Amino acid sequence: MTTVMILHDQTDDSGARFRAVAGDAQSEGKTVGAALDALAEQMGDPTATEGMLVVVRPLRPDSYFTAAEQAELESLMAAWRIARDQNRSLNHAEQARLEELVSAEWSAAARRSAGMARGLRP
């Protein structure tokens, strides 16, 4: 089964953007559906999207990923975008923390999804 995470991707322009991520593949779109369609097209193989589990949820804190973690991740992502646009990198400590928080959010999404799946079993 392919697991897809849909993220709201902050941008400087007025339009909302969404990013769909499945393994190493990722795509963007102006809507959740557009990002998902672009991801499915990128993956190419129709069997890759069979049995796809897609979880889209509002970005609210919960017991899996707290408000403090969300705020820190948002701050580091903003710093990362600025660094990227200036053709530079974050310092080692910032980059390590960013990677740690991204990993924690992925883990939280997996645990959240597992909890939902347990509730869906017949």
Description of the structure:
This protein is of the alpha+beta class and 122 residues long. The chain folds into 2 domains: 1-56; 59-122. Helices cover 49% and strands 17% of the residues. Strands 3-2-1-4 form a 4-stranded mixed beta sheet, covered by helices on one side. It is globular.
Short description:
The chain has 122 residues and is an alpha+beta fold.
Number of alpha- plus pi-helical segments: 3
Whole-number tally of structural domains: 2
Distance between the termini: 19 Å
Q: How much of the polypeptide forms β-strand, as a percent range?
A: 15-25%
Order of helices and strands: EEEHEHH
Helix/strand structural class: alpha+beta
Helix fraction by DSSP (H/I, runs of at least 4): 40-55%
Topology (elements, then pairings):
Blueprint: E1 3-9, E2 17-22, E3 25-29, H1 32-43, E4 53-55, H2 67-85, H3 92-120
Parallel strand pairs: 1-4
Antiparallel strand pairs: 1-2, 2-3
Task: Give structural attributes.
4-stranded mixed sheet; alpha+beta; 122 residues; globular; single chain; 2 domains
